[in-house]
Amino acid sequence: MHEDAQRRMNRDVAENEDLYGAFAATPKDDEE
Q1: What are phi and psi of 9, to 5 degrees?
Q2: DSSP code at position 17
Q3: Torsion angle defined by CA atoms of residues 15, 17, 21 and 26, in that order, rounded to the nearest 10 degrees
C-alpha cells in the first residue's frame, strides 16, 4: 500500500515539474 502511495506521489511530482517547466518558460514580467 505504501509503495502505491510513493508511486502516485512520484507521478504527481513529475506532472508538477512539467507544469513548472512550462511556467518558467514564460517571461517574468508577465506576472503583472
Answers
A1: -65, -45
A2: H
A3: 80
Q: List, run by run, the mean pLDDT of 10-residue segments along the chain (32 residues).
A: 86 82 67 59
10 Å Cβ neighbour count for 1?
5
Residue that the C-alpha cell 514580467 belongs to:
29
Buried b (16+ CB within 10 A) or exposed e, 4-25: eeeeeeeeeeeeeeeeeeeeee
- pTM (whole model) above 0.90: no
